[in-house]
Amino acid sequence: MIEHNLIKPIDHHLKEKSQQQGNQTAYYDANTSLTYQALEERSARFASALDKMAIHPG
Predict the structure, then answer these.
(1) Is there a domain that residue 12 lies in?
(2) pTM given for the model
(3) Which domain holds residue 12?
């Protein structure tokens, strides 16, 4: 049986993680790091920019 709560768009998972662990590191490399909150904010801005350019899924 498939667990339907696992089948969500990535932005939903990122938003939940941001709310639960916003100050924890989500990404890092030799030059920078991002918290879950910062990653969620950047992702939302990117999605908004794509929407304004009429770039949609599908």
Answers:
(1) yes
(2) 0.75
(3) 4-52
